[in-house]
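Notes, Module 5: Reading structure tokens.

Key idea: the token line is not a picture. It is a compressed description, and you learn to read it the same way you learned to read a sequence, by spotting repeated patterns. We will look at two proteins. The first is printed below with its tokens.
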Amino acid sequence: MGVDLLPKKILENYEVHEWKHACAILKNDFSNEWKDITDLLNQFQFCKSWVTVGGGRKSRVSEAIDGYLYQRGWVEKEFSTSVRVDDQIMNSPTHKVDCYKNKVALEIEWNNKDPFFDRDLNNFRLLFELRAISVGVIITRADHLQDIFDELGRGSSYGASTTHMAKLLPRIEGGSGGGCPILVFGITQSLYSEEC
């Protein structure tokens, strides 16, 4: 079971890790969201032009993933949370989730500074404890994509202190996501296309 619930094509094209039965929960309890995510991953292609052309505020990878999910009813979501002790209410703000639908939160971390993983995992932990989400998903890059960035002369823009799988896994394995079931996908070289 576990990641074996994913279609073979996804397992062949992504580095996949899960914690606390995230795949089983998604597939059985959130089948529509599971389908959205698997459909997204099955059609995703990583374009050379997304690396060679400088970016702005949001990467082309994030735009492609967000855009696909937004067309299927996912939204960027900020939660209004607070803690109440007797009559005193203290706001407990969370960070916006990139893509949210029906208690499933999905974050895209593409070439951000690696502490963004801490923010995402803490957010997943808190929102799970508050019963606002049931599963957290992160899409990032597999470490070996650095070879492509180096070949294209963009390696320094995708440095060791940016978001990639080697920076994410120790954080999750160290418990940063708390009790939240988590599923992560690393985009690999097999998805890379020089044609777009």
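Here is the second protein, with the sequence above and the tokens below, as before.
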Amino acid sequence: MKIVSWNVNGFRAALKNGFLDWFDATQPDLLSLQEVRAEWEELDFDVRNELTRRHDVCWFPAKSKKGYSGSATLSRQGLGFTHTKGVGIDAYDIEGRLVVSESAGFTFLAGYFPNASSELVRLPYKRAFAQDVARIVRERHARGEKLVVTGDLNVAPEEIDLAHPKANRTTAGFTDAEREDFRGYLDAGLRDVFRERHPGEAGLYTWWTARGAARVKNVGWRIDIFLVSEGLVPNVGDARIHPEQRGSDHCPISLELVL
């Protein structure tokens, strides 16, 4: 199973930057998109037809503000996934944060995790979200389920995961509180398989600011991450980031899972 996650930073903008060509070439079995920022009905018929030709689509835009946030999960037809928009918590679901996809004891929890924002004004919201995600993971593990959690997690877990850690100790995405909440995911029984396969390797990033030619200089952050249940780790065939793919300020990440 080929699983891909990408924060497209506006789906209509991504379309103009060759998204459909990338989609056709990549052929994911499961695909999570974040910051879609568009209603399904706003997309051209031909685009919707292309997305649904081989995949079931669960499109989950934000209802709190037009053109904001939103996520989507696409699963290849025949894989038997059922999709649920949201996790039943209005504060997150109104912003289109998470799609829950399930098939035969396997859960794919994917979407756009909150940003703490400038001056950390949304840090309490983000921390509550992270703690609820960890609780959901623990509950599903207790029922014997196995999960893949992915998306734009909006946190760089360790100093190696961003180019300038010392200058960003109090910046959204690298505060002690956010990194503590990330460790809560690991304590709930998830593993950061990409980092485990690249220990000590710097310069592996998934997001770059548009300022100062950061992407050209590779001054970035690793904030798009796959987290995998302990019991699924032996089934992971490969885990990669794809910085060569343009079309957003984030790059896609991929995970191969043998089920």
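Summary for the second protein:
- The chain has a mean pLDDT of 97.
- The chain has one domain: 2-257.
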